[in-house]
Each structure stands twice: as structure tokens, then as C-alpha cells.
Specification:
Largest sheet: none
Shape: elongated
Pfam families: RelB
Structural class: mainly alpha
Distance between the termini: 65 Å
Protein name: Type II toxin-antitoxin system RelB/DinJ family antitoxin
Number of strands: 0
Radius of gyration: 22 Å
Number of domains: 2
Order of helices and strands: HHHH
Helix content: 55-70%
Length: 92
Amino acid sequence: MSKTTNINIQIDSEFMSELEKLYGQYGLSITEAINIFLHVFLIEGCLPFEVIQQRYNTETESAMREARAIANGLIPSKKYSSAAEMINDALE
């Protein structure tokens, strides 16, 4: 068995109670949930969720989500036969 190390954090007691109830529904303790988070972080090499700091208006955010979806192949991109056709579509 490998050695363990303690990590001490301060957290609001009401928040802690909510977390215990939530993770308890999955049969997990807070310690187990944190360990899962840290293992996924180590395996993936990044946070196991998307961190977004909204700095744009709703229209821009929507356009950015659409661009990400196109880049990830989730929705097809539009194709144009000329720059004029593209500009006309953008102006509509």
C-alpha cells in the first residue's frame, strides 16, 4: 500500500454539507470525490471540465460555441463558391 498525504482545506460548512449529500448519493465521500478529480486531472493533463470566463455578449458567445462545434465536426460548416457569396450571406 502506498503512503498517503493529507491536504487541509477550508470550506464553508453549509457548502461542505451540500457536497456530502450530493456525493453521498453516488456512494462517495468528499475525499473520494477529490481523489477522482485529481486522478482525472493527472490522466487528462487538464481540468476535467471546461473553464469559461464569460466576457462577451450572448450573440458573440453563441457564435463562439458554433465555431467550436464546427471545428470539432459536430455541425457542418458552410461552403461558398466565392468571397462575394460569403459576404452576402454574412450581411443577411
